[in-house]
Specification:
By secondary structure, this protein is an alpha/beta fold. It is built from nine helices and twelve strands. It has a single domain, classed as Vaccinia Virus protein VP39 (Rossmann fold, 3-Layer(aba) Sandwich), CATH 3.40.50.150. Helix 1 (13-34) runs parallel beside helix 5 (99-111) and helix 7 packs across helix 9. GO terms for molecular function: methyltransferase activity. InterPro entries: Methyltransf_12, SAM-dependent_MTases_sf. This is Methyltransferase type 12 domain-containing protein.
Protein backbone atom coordinates (compact mmCIF):
# COMPACT_ATOMS: atom_id res chain seq x y z
CA UNK A 1 0.00 0.00 0.00
CA UNK A 2 1.20 3.47 -0.85
CA UNK A 3 -0.80 5.78 1.42
CA UNK A 4 -3.15 4.43 4.07
CA UNK A 5 -4.11 7.87 5.40
CA UNK A 6 -6.97 9.33 3.37
CA UNK A 7 -7.14 13.03 2.65
CA UNK A 8 -10.40 14.96 2.52
CA UNK A 9 -10.62 16.96 -0.68
CA UNK A 10 -12.99 19.01 -2.80
CA UNK A 11 -13.23 17.41 -6.23
CA UNK A 12 -15.67 17.54 -9.14
CA UNK A 13 -17.66 14.35 -9.64
CA UNK A 14 -16.38 14.03 -13.21
CA UNK A 15 -12.76 14.02 -12.03
CA UNK A 16 -13.43 11.61 -9.17
CA UNK A 17 -15.41 9.35 -11.48
CA UNK A 18 -12.59 9.26 -14.03
CA UNK A 19 -10.04 8.25 -11.39
CA UNK A 20 -12.32 5.60 -9.92
CA UNK A 21 -13.10 4.21 -13.36
CA UNK A 22 -9.39 3.73 -14.12
CA UNK A 23 -8.99 1.92 -10.81
CA UNK A 24 -11.98 -0.38 -11.44
CA UNK A 25 -10.81 -1.10 -14.96
CA UNK A 26 -7.55 -2.30 -13.42
CA UNK A 27 -9.44 -4.46 -10.95
CA UNK A 28 -11.42 -6.31 -13.62
CA UNK A 29 -8.67 -8.70 -14.74
CA UNK A 30 -7.38 -9.10 -11.19
CA UNK A 31 -10.84 -10.02 -9.93
CA UNK A 32 -11.47 -12.31 -12.87
CA UNK A 33 -8.61 -14.42 -11.55
CA UNK A 34 -9.26 -13.90 -7.83
CA UNK A 35 -12.98 -14.75 -8.10
CA UNK A 36 -12.18 -17.91 -10.08
CA UNK A 37 -14.91 -17.08 -12.54
CA UNK A 38 -14.23 -20.12 -14.68
CA UNK A 39 -16.10 -22.01 -11.95
CA UNK A 40 -19.32 -20.33 -13.08
CA UNK A 41 -18.86 -21.69 -16.59
CA UNK A 42 -17.84 -25.17 -15.42
CA UNK A 43 -20.56 -25.54 -12.78
CA UNK A 44 -23.92 -24.47 -14.25
CA UNK A 45 -25.57 -24.53 -10.82
CA UNK A 46 -23.00 -22.39 -8.99
CA UNK A 47 -24.43 -19.37 -7.15
CA UNK A 48 -22.16 -16.68 -5.70
CA UNK A 49 -21.87 -16.41 -1.93
CA UNK A 50 -23.30 -12.87 -2.06
CA UNK A 51 -26.45 -13.99 -3.87
CA UNK A 52 -26.78 -17.10 -1.69
CA UNK A 53 -27.14 -14.74 1.27
CA UNK A 54 -29.21 -12.05 -0.44
CA UNK A 55 -31.72 -14.13 -2.39
CA UNK A 56 -33.61 -15.68 0.57
CA UNK A 57 -34.11 -12.22 2.08
CA UNK A 58 -35.16 -10.65 -1.22
CA UNK A 59 -37.54 -13.52 -1.98
CA UNK A 60 -39.50 -12.79 1.19
CA UNK A 61 -40.62 -9.56 -0.48
CA UNK A 62 -41.59 -11.16 -3.80
CA UNK A 63 -44.73 -13.14 -4.54
CA UNK A 64 -43.04 -16.13 -6.14
CA UNK A 65 -39.29 -15.66 -6.00
CA UNK A 66 -37.20 -14.27 -8.85
CA UNK A 67 -38.51 -16.55 -11.57
CA UNK A 68 -39.40 -14.61 -14.75
CA UNK A 69 -38.93 -11.21 -13.10
CA UNK A 70 -37.07 -8.39 -14.83
CA UNK A 71 -34.10 -7.48 -12.64
CA UNK A 72 -31.58 -4.65 -12.98
CA UNK A 73 -28.28 -5.14 -11.17
CA UNK A 74 -26.65 -1.77 -10.51
CA UNK A 75 -22.84 -1.60 -10.19
CA UNK A 76 -22.60 -5.21 -11.30
CA UNK A 77 -18.77 -5.28 -11.74
CA UNK A 78 -17.69 -8.52 -13.50
CA UNK A 79 -21.10 -10.14 -13.33
CA UNK A 80 -20.74 -13.11 -10.99
CA UNK A 81 -23.72 -11.99 -8.91
CA UNK A 82 -25.69 -11.03 -12.04
CA UNK A 83 -25.16 -14.50 -13.49
CA UNK A 84 -26.20 -16.02 -10.18
CA UNK A 85 -29.46 -14.03 -10.15
CA UNK A 86 -30.17 -15.24 -13.68
CA UNK A 87 -29.68 -18.82 -12.50
CA UNK A 88 -32.42 -18.19 -9.96
CA UNK A 89 -34.78 -17.38 -12.82
CA UNK A 90 -34.57 -13.62 -13.26
CA UNK A 91 -34.24 -11.86 -16.63
CA UNK A 92 -31.17 -9.82 -15.85
CA UNK A 93 -29.57 -6.56 -16.95
CA UNK A 94 -26.22 -5.59 -15.47
CA UNK A 95 -25.06 -1.97 -15.33
CA UNK A 96 -21.56 -0.75 -14.54
CA UNK A 97 -19.36 2.23 -15.41
CA UNK A 98 -16.24 0.11 -16.02
CA UNK A 99 -15.95 -1.14 -19.62
CA UNK A 100 -13.22 -3.59 -18.62
CA UNK A 101 -15.50 -5.11 -15.98
CA UNK A 102 -18.35 -5.45 -18.45
CA UNK A 103 -16.10 -7.21 -20.96
CA UNK A 104 -15.39 -9.85 -18.33
CA UNK A 105 -19.10 -10.05 -17.48
CA UNK A 106 -20.11 -10.50 -21.12
CA UNK A 107 -17.55 -13.24 -21.64
CA UNK A 108 -18.65 -14.98 -18.46
CA UNK A 109 -22.29 -14.92 -19.53
CA UNK A 110 -21.45 -16.49 -22.88
CA UNK A 111 -19.30 -19.19 -21.31
CA UNK A 112 -21.95 -19.89 -18.66
CA UNK A 113 -24.73 -19.97 -21.30
CA UNK A 114 -26.64 -17.15 -19.57
CA UNK A 115 -28.76 -14.60 -21.41
CA UNK A 116 -28.11 -11.11 -20.02
CA UNK A 117 -28.08 -7.50 -21.16
CA UNK A 118 -25.14 -5.28 -20.20
CA UNK A 119 -25.14 -1.49 -20.01
CA UNK A 120 -22.10 0.74 -19.58
CA UNK A 121 -23.21 3.79 -17.59
CA UNK A 122 -22.90 5.59 -14.30
CA UNK A 123 -25.44 4.46 -11.74
CA UNK A 124 -26.35 8.13 -11.26
CA UNK A 125 -27.49 8.20 -14.91
CA UNK A 126 -29.07 4.75 -14.93
CA UNK A 127 -32.62 5.80 -15.89
CA UNK A 128 -31.37 7.56 -19.02
CA UNK A 129 -29.09 4.68 -19.96
CA UNK A 130 -31.49 1.75 -19.49
CA UNK A 131 -34.72 1.20 -21.38
CA UNK A 132 -37.73 -0.39 -19.76
CA UNK A 133 -38.88 -0.82 -16.18
CA UNK A 134 -37.99 -3.52 -13.69
CA UNK A 135 -39.64 -5.68 -11.05
CA UNK A 136 -36.42 -5.67 -9.00
CA UNK A 137 -33.51 -3.25 -8.77
CA UNK A 138 -30.64 -4.90 -6.91
CA UNK A 139 -27.26 -3.74 -5.63
CA UNK A 140 -24.77 -5.52 -3.37
CA UNK A 141 -22.03 -5.06 -2.01
CA UNK A 142 -19.42 -2.26 -1.63
CA UNK A 143 -21.33 0.15 -3.86
CA UNK A 144 -22.61 3.46 -2.54
CA UNK A 145 -19.36 4.68 -0.98
CA UNK A 146 -18.36 5.44 -4.58
CA UNK A 147 -21.26 7.87 -5.04
CA UNK A 148 -21.39 11.49 -3.83
CA UNK A 149 -25.15 12.09 -4.28
CA UNK A 150 -27.57 9.60 -2.74
CA UNK A 151 -30.66 11.65 -3.57
CA UNK A 152 -29.84 11.34 -7.26
CA UNK A 153 -29.04 7.64 -6.74
CA UNK A 154 -32.40 6.97 -5.09
CA UNK A 155 -34.24 8.91 -7.79
CA UNK A 156 -32.74 6.64 -10.44
CA UNK A 157 -33.90 3.56 -8.56
CA UNK A 158 -37.46 4.85 -8.13
CA UNK A 159 -37.66 5.80 -11.81
CA UNK A 160 -36.47 2.35 -12.90
CA UNK A 161 -38.95 0.37 -10.81
CA UNK A 162 -42.40 -0.65 -11.92
CA UNK A 163 -45.30 0.00 -9.58
CA UNK A 164 -44.99 -2.47 -6.69
CA UNK A 165 -41.38 -3.16 -7.72
CA UNK A 166 -38.76 -3.92 -5.08
CA UNK A 167 -35.36 -2.38 -4.42
CA UNK A 168 -32.75 -4.42 -2.51
CA UNK A 169 -29.39 -3.33 -1.16
CA UNK A 170 -26.89 -5.03 1.12
CA UNK A 171 -23.74 -3.06 1.67
CA UNK A 172 -20.90 -2.45 4.07
CA UNK A 173 -22.13 -0.75 7.23
CA UNK A 174 -21.01 2.88 7.59
CA UNK A 175 -20.21 2.20 11.26
CA UNK A 176 -17.68 -0.42 10.17
CA UNK A 177 -16.20 1.93 7.58
CA UNK A 178 -15.51 4.43 10.39
CA UNK A 179 -13.20 1.91 12.09
CA UNK A 180 -9.43 1.77 11.72
CA UNK A 181 -9.06 -1.53 9.92
CA UNK A 182 -5.39 -1.83 10.91
CA UNK A 183 -5.88 -1.18 14.66
CA UNK A 184 -5.44 -4.05 17.16
CA UNK A 185 -8.98 -3.45 18.47
CA UNK A 186 -12.22 -1.74 17.46
CA UNK A 187 -11.01 1.85 17.18
CA UNK A 188 -12.89 4.65 15.45
CA UNK A 189 -10.73 6.59 13.01
CA UNK A 190 -12.59 7.74 9.89
CA UNK A 191 -15.64 9.95 9.53
CA UNK A 192 -19.12 8.49 9.88
CA UNK A 193 -20.93 11.61 8.72
CA UNK A 194 -20.45 13.32 5.33
CA UNK A 195 -18.60 16.62 5.19
CA UNK A 196 -19.21 17.46 1.54
CA UNK A 197 -15.68 16.36 0.72
CA UNK A 198 -14.40 13.11 -0.74
CA UNK A 199 -11.99 10.81 1.03
CA UNK A 200 -9.13 10.14 -1.36
CA UNK A 201 -6.93 7.06 -1.04
CA UNK A 202 -3.76 5.92 -2.74
CA UNK A 203 -3.71 2.13 -2.57
CA UNK A 204 -2.26 -0.32 -5.06
CA UNK A 205 -4.05 -3.36 -3.58
CA UNK A 206 -7.61 -4.56 -4.03
CA UNK A 207 -9.98 -6.47 -1.77
CA UNK A 208 -9.61 -9.76 -3.71
CA UNK A 209 -6.42 -11.57 -4.63
CA UNK A 210 -2.81 -10.45 -4.46
CA UNK A 211 -2.61 -8.40 -7.66
CA UNK A 212 -1.84 -4.68 -7.77
CA UNK A 213 -3.57 -1.94 -9.71
CA UNK A 214 -1.75 0.59 -11.87
CA UNK A 215 -4.12 3.48 -11.10
CA UNK A 216 -4.05 3.73 -7.32
CA UNK A 217 -5.98 6.93 -6.62
CA UNK A 218 -9.65 6.55 -5.62
CA UNK A 219 -12.36 8.75 -4.12
CA UNK A 220 -15.09 7.70 -1.70
CA UNK A 221 -17.91 9.36 0.24
CA UNK A 222 -19.22 8.26 3.67
CA UNK A 223 -22.99 7.84 3.98
CA UNK A 224 -24.62 7.23 7.39
CA UNK A 225 -27.64 4.97 7.65
CA UNK A 226 -29.89 8.00 8.17
CA UNK A 227 -28.81 9.52 4.84
CA UNK A 228 -29.37 6.26 2.95
CA UNK A 229 -32.88 5.73 4.30
CA UNK A 230 -33.87 9.37 3.90
CA UNK A 231 -32.74 9.42 0.26
CA UNK A 232 -34.93 6.38 -0.51
CA UNK A 233 -37.91 7.92 1.31
CA UNK A 234 -37.49 11.23 -0.53
CA UNK A 235 -37.60 9.30 -3.80
CA UNK A 236 -41.03 7.98 -2.84
CA UNK A 237 -40.07 4.43 -1.87
CA UNK A 238 -41.54 2.62 1.12
CA UNK A 239 -39.04 0.93 3.44
CA UNK A 240 -40.11 -2.64 4.21
CA UNK A 241 -36.97 -3.97 5.87
CA UNK A 242 -33.80 -2.86 7.62
CA UNK A 243 -31.37 -5.50 8.85
CA UNK A 244 -27.81 -5.29 10.18
CA UNK A 245 -25.41 -8.20 9.77
CA UNK A 246 -22.29 -9.56 11.41
CA UNK A 247 -20.46 -11.00 8.39
CA UNK A 248 -18.87 -9.77 5.16
CA UNK A 249 -17.96 -11.42 1.85
CA UNK A 250 -14.49 -9.86 2.01
CA UNK A 251 -11.87 -9.32 4.71
CA UNK A 252 -12.25 -5.66 5.73
CA UNK A 253 -9.59 -5.94 8.44
CA UNK A 254 -6.64 -8.33 8.82
CA UNK A 255 -8.06 -9.23 12.23
CA UNK A 256 -11.24 -10.64 10.75
CA UNK A 257 -11.57 -14.42 10.81
CA UNK A 258 -12.71 -16.52 7.87
CA UNK A 259 -15.88 -18.54 8.42
CA UNK A 260 -16.73 -21.96 7.01
CA UNK A 261 -18.86 -20.47 4.22
CA UNK A 262 -16.04 -18.18 3.07
CA UNK A 263 -17.39 -15.00 4.65
CA UNK A 264 -15.47 -12.97 7.24
CA UNK A 265 -16.33 -11.67 10.71
CA UNK A 266 -14.75 -9.99 13.69
CA UNK A 267 -13.34 -12.32 16.39
CA UNK A 268 -16.00 -13.88 18.61
CA UNK A 269 -15.39 -11.44 21.46
CA UNK A 270 -16.13 -8.46 19.20
CA UNK A 271 -18.78 -9.83 16.84
CA UNK A 272 -21.76 -8.45 18.74
CA UNK A 273 -20.25 -4.98 19.16
CA UNK A 274 -20.28 -3.49 15.67
CA UNK A 275 -22.28 -4.37 12.52
CA UNK A 276 -20.56 -5.29 9.27
CA UNK A 277 -23.43 -4.83 6.83
CA UNK A 278 -26.88 -3.32 6.48
CA UNK A 279 -29.72 -4.58 4.29
CA UNK A 280 -32.62 -2.45 3.09
CA UNK A 281 -35.63 -3.60 1.11
CA UNK A 282 -37.92 -0.88 -0.26
CA UNK A 283 -40.96 -0.91 -2.53
CA UNK A 284 -42.34 1.53 -5.10
CA UNK A 285 -46.01 2.11 -4.27
Amino acid sequence: MDDLEPRHVDIDWSDARAANQLNWNDRASLHEEAYGIERYANDRELISGVVREDAPVLSQHLNAGLSSLDLLHLQCHIGTDTISLARLGARVTGLDFSPASLEVAKRLAIEADITADWVEADVLDARQAVSGDFDVVYTSIGTIIWLPDLDRWAQQIAALLRTNGVFFIRDGHPMMYALDEEAPDLTLRWGYFPTGQAQTWDDETTYAGDGKVEHTRTYEWPHPISEIITALLRAGLVIERLDEGQTLPWRFSPRMVELEDGDFAWPDSERSIVPCTFTIVARKP
